[in-house]
């Protein structure tokens, strides 16, 4: 998830797509989440991706 966040932060849409696909392959429970990320990535909407991911990153890093 951290890599996905980092790619979105720097606007690396290819990286976002690769990481979203990797997450889904790693755990099918990420399928819906990954599909949303891929939809936004196809629209180059890194802002929406960050809005979705930032709370998750914040919780997991204990900030």
Task: Tell me the layout of helices and strands.
Layout: H1 2-10, H2 13-26, H3 31-42, H4 46-60
Helix pairs in contact: 1-2, 1-4, 2-3
Explained architecture:
- The structure is a single chain.
- This protein has 63 residues and is mainly α.
- The chain has one domain.
- It is built from four helices and no strands.
- The protein has helices at residues 2-10, 13-26, 31-42, 46-60.
- α1 (2-10) runs antiparallel to α2 (13-26), α1 runs antiparallel to α4 (46-60) and α2 packs antiparallel against α3 (31-42).
| Unreliable residue stretches | none
Euclidean distance between termini CA atoms:
15 Å
Multimerization state: single chain
Our count of helices gives 4
Main beta sheet, described? none
Helix content: over 70%
Envelope shape: globular
Radius of gyration: 11 Å
Mean pLDDT: 94
Structural class: mainly alpha
Number of strands: 0
Structurally, the number of domains stands at 1
| Topology pattern, helix = H, strand = E | HHHH
Binned strand content:
under 5%
Question: Gist?
Answer:
By secondary structure, the protein is an all-alpha fold.
């Amino acid at each position: 998830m951290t890599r996905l966040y980092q790619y979105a932060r720097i606007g690396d849409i290819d990286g976002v797509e690769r990481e979203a696909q990797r997450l889904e392959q790693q755990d099918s429970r990420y399928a819906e989440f990954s599909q949303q990320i891929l939809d936004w990535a196809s629209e180059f909407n890194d802002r929406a991706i960050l809005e979705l991911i930032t709370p998750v990153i914040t919780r997991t890093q204990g900030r």
